[in-house]
Amino acid sequence: MTTPTSRVICDITISADGFSAGLDQTEERPFGDDGGDGSGAGLHAWMFDTPDENRAEIDRLNTAGAFIMGRNMFGPVRGAWDRRWSGWWGGDPPFHAPVFVLTHHAREPQPMDGGTTYHFVTDGIAAALEQARTAAGDSDVTVLGGATTINQYLAAGLIHKLRLHIAPLTLGAGTRLFEGVPPLHLEQLTSRAASRVTHVTYRVST
Q1: Which of 142, 200, 190 lies closest to 166, judged by CA?
Q2: In whole angstroms, what is the distance from residue 146 CA to residue 88 CA?
Q3: How far apart are CA 85 and CA 189, in angstroms?
Q4: Would you give per-residue pLDDT tens digits along the chain (206 residues)?
Q5: Comparing C-alpha atoms, which of 69, 76, 77 is closest to residue 93?
Q6: Which residues contact 3 (CB under 8 A, 6 or more apart)?
Q7: What are phi and psi of 161, to 5 degrees?
Q8: CA-CA distance, 57 to 54, in Å (whole number)?
Q9: 3-class secondary-structure state, position 54
Q10: I need a labelling partner for 152 at 20 to 30 A (CA). Which of 11, 70, 138, 176 fits?
């Protein structure tokens, strides 16, 4: 059996002060106190208000062979799966590949339209990555977030490349990228400014 050679990439939007979401997240306000209505509209204006400026970065978001996300990114349900929830993205999510969701509560895989299947992993980040790499083969694995999940992978030395989309706003508090992560060496590979965002790509080494 050959060992998958996929790279592990993080792709996340953060505020200028490093937060991917504000405090007090709820189902109605999934990004919490984000300076607006809690929908993350300010953070993600680069994707939805100025997509033509950022077409290359948008098109690259969902090109991995498999994805990993935390349960908080998947949805607002906490504890046991006491109601049906199939993600924020509707019946045909944009991933079109296996998505491995970190959770403490077991659940059967959830197939969706368009080739996405959510797999629920209860035995930690290494197990999720092993499954994602097997599914991706030689394609990349993208850790989508949120920041808490990415921080776990960074702290474990498992991320090869960071793609950060830095929005020109501050949140002041919330879920912060790099929180609790040991010092890293980041080699800047690319940087591009647009009207609503600065895209920066780093290679990661410890």
Answers
A1: 200
A2: 14
A3: 38
A4: 445 567 999 999 999 999 999 999 999 999 999 999 999 999 999 999 999 999 999 999 989 999 999 999 999 888 888 888 889 999 999 999 999 999 999 999 999 999 999 999 999 999 999 999 999 999 999 999 999 999 999 999 999 999 999 999 999 999 999 999 999 999 999 999 999 999 999 999 86
A5: 69
A6: none
A7: -145, 140
A8: 6
A9: helix
A10: 138
**How long is the chain?**
206
CB 127 within 8 A of CB 104: no
Distance CA 129, CA 120 (A): 12
User: What does the alpha-carbon distance between residue 50 and residue 44 come to, in Å, rounded to a whole number?
Assistant: 10
Tokens of 131: 């499954």
91 preceded by a cis bond (ω within 30 of 0): no
Residue 19: DSSP 8-state: E
CA atoms within 13 A on the CB side of 179: 14
Helices (H), ranges, the chain? 45-48, 55-60, 71-74, 125-136, 147-155
